[in-house]
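Mods, move this if it's the wrong board.
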Amino acid sequence: MSNLQRIEISGPEPGPGVISAQIFAFPNRERACAAPLDRIAALVDTPGEAATALVMLCRLLAEASPERLSALRAHPLHALLLADPLTALAQSLPSAEAEWLDLLLGLGSAAARWQPTSPAGARLHAALRQSGLAMAARERRLAFAHAVDAAAARQPRAAVLALGAGHLREADLTARAHRLEIWLALEEDSEARAEIRRAHDRHRRIATAPEGLGRFLAQPLRHGCFDLIYAGTLCDQLPAPALARLARTALSTLRPGGRLLLANHAESLAEAPYVTAIMARPLHGRDEATLGEILATLPAAQRGDVTLHRSPSGGMLFAEVVRRG
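Not the wrong board. Structure tokens:
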């Protein structure tokens, strides 16, 4: 008997002299995979417990084998997860990075287009919106806005370049952007560029360019023409060699004294397993040592001071490099 089951032997009514026995054998592999998923699904479906379910699921995914991931996709829990619009959007439109970020942060009109399809989906969506993942994204947006204001304060008529700009939502938080010469948003997605123009049509300093990472690396903009260059989601998506190349190209495009600011999700982000395994989104989390090794490959003649620090929540890692010269 290859997969032994629970067997009960008992008399018709419990009482003196009646034999009652239970024989348990090790559950089969499918059941072993399903048991923790059953518990998590029950929590997702229970009001007030979605945050706990998310924590448990992320811990499970962090050590999940291919077998367990396969079991999850076949388990009813997977349908509950897809009722969350963030998870559904990530899987149905993997290239809609800017739309996904708007939905995570509750910005723009994304919430009206992507809504939970069940009460469980609504609870999970609320948990994700309050998670460390969302907190790190809010901290990155605020840090970019502060960096733009600082560039405008340091340099009259400063020029700023945003790589992989998305919807450029940090522009809503700036106080000195009107002092800039130009704020150029490089964004490959045409719908994202259209949203930048719509949302900031009164901001005369903001311009868009239909360039993706490949074109920027192959045909860099004129050297020494920007005072601040920053990148966020690109850092999460790129493996180390590609990120190093991006940093080298960006550094050469800065004026002497200009700043390169990179924002990378920290390796310790608790929700990272959910993002990669369930949402199927690339997320190269890094720590200070790993990011420092990448920055060490920058040309010494151009690399000035390098500063690494984490966001208040610890979920986002920032690296600032000053262009020497």
